[in-house]
Specification:
- The complex is a heterodimer of chains A (about 350) and B (about 525).
- Chain A has a domain of about 220 residues.
- In chain A, helix 12 packs antiparallel against helix 13.
- Chain A is globular, with a radius of gyration of 22 Å.
- With about 350 residues, chain A is mainly alpha-helical.
- Chain A starts with about 25 loop residues before the first helix and ends with a helix.
- Chain B has about 525 residues and is α/β, with parallel strands linked by helices.
- Among the domains of chain B are: about 190 residues, P-loop containing nucleotide triphosphate hydrolases (Rossmann fold); about 130 residues, 3-Layer(aba) Sandwich (Rossmann fold), CATH 3.40.50.
- In chain B, helix 14 packs parallel to helix 17 and helix 17 packs parallel to helix 18.
- The chains are: A mainly alpha (about 350), B alpha/beta (about 525).
- At the A-B interface, helix 7, helix 8, helix 9, helix 14 and helix 15 of A face helix 2, helix 3, helix 4, helix 5 and helix 6 of B.
């Protein structure tokens, strides 16, 4: 599922002599079903609020890393400013709840799409500016834009300045306070993952991957590269904005230094790298491992420093052992195993051009 | 008949050097138009200008009378002009089939383009038909990065056809490609032309151009020199002068003159200059136990499967050993395996008395094997001096580096004369010399030289071959991979024929060249295994 491009052939492709790896649709669907069931049952099985908050934070990062990957993973453009959208979404939800006098509880969740919309709207001018540059320059420009937003949130009056903004109080019972947040996050995660998967196999996604491999040639093949890049940038900002709104609603208030946190930018990139850039499953896996580990270590040792060390060790290990990230490395391994099994040594079919050329 | 594409008075300069100056070109509908000229005459730049990759301030490009000057590449493609690149460009991490689908022109809404799967059944069928047309259907699910050079050329061409452009601009379709494939490509181009496509070909291979094109334009120093039928162009003395720089070089003259239009394309050979008598070549009957490099049962490949299969061969000390074979035979893989970029799966490689297989590229380099890869490996934005000094990166003895640099400068005065010029601004032949100079900084015993003549015009090619012989005369053993088999083998004391990763023939250069099966190998049909 992580690499549909090399996966199952569609209808009408039975005439190809070279068979791709055979479709294994049923097991994949089964695995997705089981995973979903585990995620859905989690807060029922583990009701301890500490555990469920860790789970909630993990979901937020799974959403954000997956959304980040829709743009950066597929196009190869490393954006280090997605906290702009995380913070903007949070502020949009907080402000709209305040000015429209939305009551705490479920109605605030209904404002999340508005937060996503604002984040997407902000992504348009940001993208128009940043996407005029490429590669390293693009990275630097996104970081610069991020700091502009951080400064703005601290200094503008309507954001509440350094004291931030309060969300309406959620009237959930103390024992089950986390659960509504958890399930809304899970729903958002499923939707974001579906979008990521859909983009990966779509024509739009193919154009993004082509841009990653050779942007100039893609342009020469009629790909409207600017439009495609901007589209993906906006598309990746929306879920991050919604996740921002949800996260800070859970926390209860939003401050500039947390809403626009440079570590958030880095965390998304690290998670996607760890799991596998440009795959659907990679960022999910990366965020699941890193965020839950970080939260667990912080809670267990009640020290912020321990997780940074563990983070570093884990990251080094992955870079050394699986430099392309976990998912692509495993996929290659599986494919090689498969190839070795179906073509024992020496019988590997050799692409012989001359037969057809002669 | 008014031309389909008209280029009028186009000028383009890079940092003071005029790539194009007041250049004109007419492309006529339904024809195969040829564009030839010596290296640096502006052929590729002209393609870049037409397709919008380079913006111009002077001149005009029109398509069917409409001004398309400085139109962006995506629009130019949308107007029906597709192009290939001199150094083939593909989406290396996408599969062959995905590469084919990138250019599909489908007008659909935003949402649909995101939600619907890439490539409708019909588009995939069309893509497979086109892969079949060029002959690489069976590779449909391979990553494009795994294809051999020739297969990449075919894929690049096929990936354009998906959008059914009316005009194809092909930049050196036959460059670095074996004669069988050249013939195959020529047939494909003719068939595309018969089906109504207008084609412009930039090419160094004279036979290819002369037999294929109905109209040829010769560029020289950024300007159209002559335009006309192949016969007219061939008989024009100005064309010869453009190629020869005013000097009379019999080999190029023969090459230009001997090709009749429509004659069956045989292997094109730019006769290399005979070895100068000052540099006696080792005799072909040299005893085998004096091998500098020995490969024993080497099997190697990338991910998907073995490319080299049980390769056993010796490179005699002091020889020029030339490896020839069709595209995809494993020649570059052989080089990469020796230099350590690729670790052999089975077998061992000995250099002198040391086993080097399994060592890192750095250690192999340090033991005295330098690899000059195919295509351009200089750092284009660094100066000539910096590039040459990079060759000595691993040497910490500054005095030694200075001595070596002085020696290299004496051998190649260009290293001194153009020391502070950016390497990327040099011509193809000059860049080759800088690559040689860089590799000599390490004073290697064995030089692995992959396709030194690629992309060079005949005169420059002859010069580069002379430099190869010179290095050999100065005691370097050279393992050469050469697409131009005859030229390569004539230059070499020993020859090796590789086909599908298997060593088919070995012998002296002359023996291999004279072997009755060698023609069959290149013109189709496998060589009967000796014995």
């Amino acid at each position: 599922m992580s690499e549909p491009g090399s996966g199952a052939p569609g209808a009408g492709m039975h005439a190809i002599p070279a068979q791709p790896p055979p479709a294994r649709r049923a097991p994949v669907l089964g695995a997705i079903g089981v995973t979903l069931a585990v995620f859905a049952a989690f807060p029922v099985l583990f009701t301890d609020p500490t555990t469920t908050s860790i789970a909630f934070f993990t979901l937020i990062f799974m959403i954000s890393a997956t959304a980040w990957n829709i743009f950066s993973g597929y196009s190869g453009y490393l954006a280090l400013g997605h906290a702009v959208f995380f913070g903007s979404g949070a502020y949009a939800v907080a402000m709209s709840a305040k000015s429209w006098h939305v009551a705490g509880g479920w109605p605030v969740f209904a404002l999340l799409p508005f937060g996503g919309l604002i984040a997407g709207a902000i992504a348009i001018p940001v993208g128009l500016v940043a996407l005029r540059t490429r590669r390293h320059t693009f990275v630097v420009v996104t970081i610069a834009i991020f700091f502009i937003f951080q400064l703005a949130a601290t200094n503008f009056g309507f954001t509440g300045g350094t004291s931030g903004m309060l969300f309406p109080i959620a009237p959930f019972s103390a024992a089950n306070y986390n659960q509504p947040f958890y399930y809304v996050a899970l729903a958002l995660l499923v939707a974001t993952t579906f979008v990521s998967w859909s983009v990966r196999r779509s024509r739009f996604g193919l154009q993004l991957l082509a841009i990653r491999d050779d942007e100039d040639r893609a342009l020469g093949l009629g790909v409207k590269t600017r439009r495609v890049k901007l589209g993906a940038f906006v598309l990746s900002a929306v879920p991050v904005g919604m996740a921002g709104g949800l996260y800070f609603y859970f926390v209860g208030q939003v401050f500039p230094q947390f809403a626009f946190d440079p570590l958030f930018d880095l965390a998304l990139a690290l998670m996607a790298f760890l799991g596998g850039l440009g795959t659907v499953a990679g960022p999910l896996l990366g965020a699941l491992v890193l965020e839950s580990l970080q939260q667990y270590l912080t809670q267990t040792f009640s020290s912020d420093a321990i997780y940074l060390i563990a983070y570093g060790v884990l990251f080094l290990a992955v870079i050394l052992i699986l430099p392309r990230g976990v998912v692509p490395s495993i996929a290659t391994l599986v494919r090689r195993r498969h190839a070795a099994r179906s073509h024992p040594a020496g019988t590997m079919p050799e692409p012989r051009l001359r037969e057809t050329a002669a | 008949m008014s031309p389909l594409i008209e280029v009028a008075g186009v000028s383009k300069a890079y940092g003071g050097v005029n790539a194009l100056s007041d250049c004109d070109l007419e492309v006529h509908e339904g024809q195969v138009n040829g564009l030839i000229g010596p290296n640096g005459s502006g052929k590729t730049t002209l393609f870049n200008v037409i397709t919008g990759y380079e913006r111009i301030r002077h001149g005009k490009v029109s398509l069917q009378g409409a001004d398309i000057t400085n139109t962006t590449p995506d629009r130019v493609f949308g107007l029906g002009i597709g192009r290939t690149f001199q150094l083939t460009r593909l989406f290396m991490r996408l599969s062959v089939l995905e590469n084919m689908l990138v250019a599909t022109q489908r007008h659909e809404g935003w949402l649909r383009s995101i939600v619907r799967r890439a490539g409708s059944a019909q588009e995939k069928r069309r893509a497979l038909e086109l892969l079949d047309f060029v002959g690489i259907t069976r590779l449909a699910h391979e990553p494009a990065g795994n294809l051999s050079y020739g297969q990449r050329k075919l894929l690049e061409l096929a990936s354009l056809l998906v959008a059914d452009p009316a005009i194809l601009l092909l930049d050196e379709p036959a460059g670095g490609v074996n004669p069988t494939l050249i013939k195959h490509l020529a047939d494909r181009i003719r068939e595309l032309n018969r089906s109504g496509k207008t084609i412009v070909v930039v090419e160094h291979n004279m036979e290819f151009v002369m037999s294929l094109c109905s109209r040829i334009t010769v560029l020289s120093q950024g300007r159209a020199l002559v335009s006309g039928t192949p016969a007219e162009v061939r008989s024009d003395p100005a064309v010869l002068d453009a190629y020869l720089g005013g000097e009379d070089d019999p080999s190029t003259q023969r090459q230009l003159a001997s090709v009749a239009p429509g004659s069956a394309p045989a292997a094109t050979v730019g006769t290399p200059p005979a070895a100068s008598p000052r540099f006696p070549r080792p005799s072909p009957s040299e005893p085998r136990d004096d091998a500098l490099l020995r490969l024993r049962n080497v099997t190697a490949g990338y991910g998907g499967g073995d490319i080299l299969k049980d390769v056993t061969l010796d490179v005699p000390r002091g020889s020029i050993t030339c490896v020839v074979g069709p595209n995809g035979a494993g020649k570059s893989t052989l080089m990469a395996t020796i230099s350590g970029l690729l670790r052999p799966r089975l077998g061992d490689i000995r250099f002198g008395h040391e086993v080097i297989s399994g060592r890192t590229p750095k250690r192999i380099l340090a033991s005295g094997i330098a690899h000059i890869p195919q295509a351009h490996s200089l750092f284009p934005d660094m100066t000539v001096r910096q590039n040459v000094e990079m060759g000595a990166y691993t040497i910490s003895d500054r005095a030694l580096v200075r001595r070596r640099l002085a020696a290299v400068e004496e051998l190649y005065p260009i290293v001194r004369d153009r020391a502070h010029v950016k390497a990327g601004s040099l011509s193809g032949g000059q860049q080759r010399l800088i690559e040689f100079a860089r590799c000599l900084m390490l004073d290697p015993e064995l030089i692995l030289l992959d396709e030194p003549s690629m992309g060079l015009d005949p005169l420059t090619r002859g010069f580069v071959f002379e430099m190869v012989q010179q290095m050999n005369a100065r005691g370097k053993t050279i393992l050469l991979v050469e697409q131009n088999a005859r030229a390569g083998l004539k230059l070499s004391s020993h020859g090796v024929v590789l086909e599908n990763g298997i060593v088919r023939l070995t012998g002296s250069g002359a023996e291999v060249l004279a072997h009755p099966e060698i023609g069959a190998l290149y013109l189709g049909g496998a060589v009967a295994t000796a014995g």
